[in-house]
Design goal:
Length: 254
């Protein structure tokens, strides 16, 4: 059985003091839940202090982005080498990065390779726009994103990679995909694409998260679906009670 994951993407929120307080509160609420992987992804500037706050806990830290180069003249960027002693995971290719900062399938692939080479677990994001969804292009588009992101990897590496399906039309809108819709894409498109590239075992091993307006009210229905292995959580992860409830609901299902 794939271990479920609740990953909180804090986005551009929380000063250092606020981030430490949130991490401490989350630790108090869910540190003893052992059958769910819990990950918090603060802004870069908060990562050192949040990591220090969570030392000795069962809660992992992730970054929200990284560059593929080890070092160099890339003003404003952060490398995997800079993160690897502070974080365990890194979000790559979030739709907001693709939309606002010109991320491409090629850069996502390069970042994913660099992350894994440095010992970080990439959480690779894929997802279609509302227009693509309404035109019936979801399956082709998302499958293409998955295959581009995973180009050059091996079947064995699929156990070290996480994919998050986040339909762009559901992010921060309150309009989540139904549990059935999310499961259909996670299993029938994302997992199928992995299967086509790497075979049955790799497809059965890789963890696939759903993201997009997930919260404590809909997480139970979402996590009950067989091809959804967790959630990449936005706004709800900034609220201790909401995030803790999502973790505990998931724990009860497993």
């Amino acid at each position: 059985m794939r271990k479920p994951m609740m990953a909180g993407n804090w986005k551009m929120n929380k000063t250092i003091n606020e981030a430490v307080a949130l991490a401490r509160a989350i630790r108090e609420q869910v540190n003893d839940v052992n059958n769910v992987d819990r990950v918090v992804c603060p802004p870069f500037i908060d990562i050192p202090m949040v990591s220090a706050e969570l030392i000795g806990s069962n809660i992992a830290v992730g970054a929200q982005n990284m560059h593929w180069a080890e070092s160099g003249a890339y003003t404003g960027e952060i490398s995997a080498a800079m993160l690897k002693n502070l974080a365990t995971y890194v979000i790559i290719g979030h739709s907001e990065r693709r939309q606002y900062f010109a991320e491409t399938d090629e850069s996502v692939n390069k970042k994913a390779h660099a992350a894994l080479a440095a010992g970080l677990t990439p959480i690779i994001c894929v997802g279609e726009s509302l227009e693509q969804n309404e035109r019936g292009e979801t399956q082709e588009f998302v499958s293409g994103q998955v295959k581009a992101a995973l180009a050059g990897f091996t079947a064995a590496q699929m156990a070290e990679i996480v994919i998050a399906y986040e339909p762009i039309w559901a992010i921060g809108t309150g309009r989540a995909a139904t549990a059935e819709q999310a499961n259909d894409i996670c299993g029938g498109v994302v997992r199928k694409a992995v299967n086509e590239m790497f075979g049955d075992e790799a497809a059965a091993t890789i963890r696939i998260l759903y993201g997009g307006s997930t919260n404590e009210k809909n997480i139970g229905e979402i996590m009950a679906k067989p091809d959804i292995d967790g959630a990449l959580i936005g706004g709800a992860s900034l609220k201790v009670e909401s995030y803790a409830a999502m973790v505990k609901t998931t724990s009860e299902l497993y």
